[in-house]
């Protein structure tokens, strides 16, 4: 059912889960400190070569946009194609937006931040989702969505901007084809995993959640 980008369940469309399929989990919550919107795609069995390549290319797009450095007052539509380039390279694409503004204890889709032509330029302090995907009708759907904060980049000249991903959830190692990733993308991924371990791992230890801590360690190995 995740092959539909915006699927709504009905009594007649529910299906049994198996280990032979991909699963897309679009999750979120509203808290006093802010709103979350995080999507992960997983496969608990043996993914097909197409599934693995498509997932990896979606991840590459997520990383490429997340690590991008760009000038102040850049419109989201100008940089949006960075999230699609790895898919475009092999003739794949997705038919929804790449991201949307996220409210602070407000709407999860908050206007006017985002990557579409009618969104405002990106400015430090804005929260946006970054969520490329790929969908194959009747077969499977992939989306990787993180929440990112627009921050100042550490550059030599006048202040440029970049993104700081604040969603601290590992990606599915079972679906990543490392041979497709560039050294820069792997370094980004390793730094992201180190950050997850430092923040989430410490909290799990504080709460004495040892099973969850062990899971986190396995899924954030370099």
Automatic annotation (TrEMBL):
Q: Which keywords accompany this UniProt record?
A: Aminopeptidase, Hydrolase, Protease
Q: Where would I find the Peptidase M24 domain in this sequence?
A: 1-151
Q: Where is the Peptidase M24 C-terminal domain?
A: 159-222
Q: Which GO terms describe its molecular function?
A: aminopeptidase activity
InterPro entries in UniProt: Creatinase/aminopeptidase-like (IPR036005), Pept_M24 (IPR000994), Peptidase_M24_C (IPR032416), X-Pro_aminopeptidase_P (IPR050422)
The question of whether Hydrolase is a record keyword is answered with yes
The superkingdom listed in its UniProt entry is Eukaryota
| Similarity annotation | Belongs to the peptidase M24B family.
List, alphabetically, the PANTHER family matched: XAA-PRO AMINOPEPTIDASE 1, XAA-PRO AMINOPEPTIDASE 2
Task: Give the protein's recorded name.
Answer: XPP2 aminopeptidase
Species whose genome carries this gene:
Bucco capensis
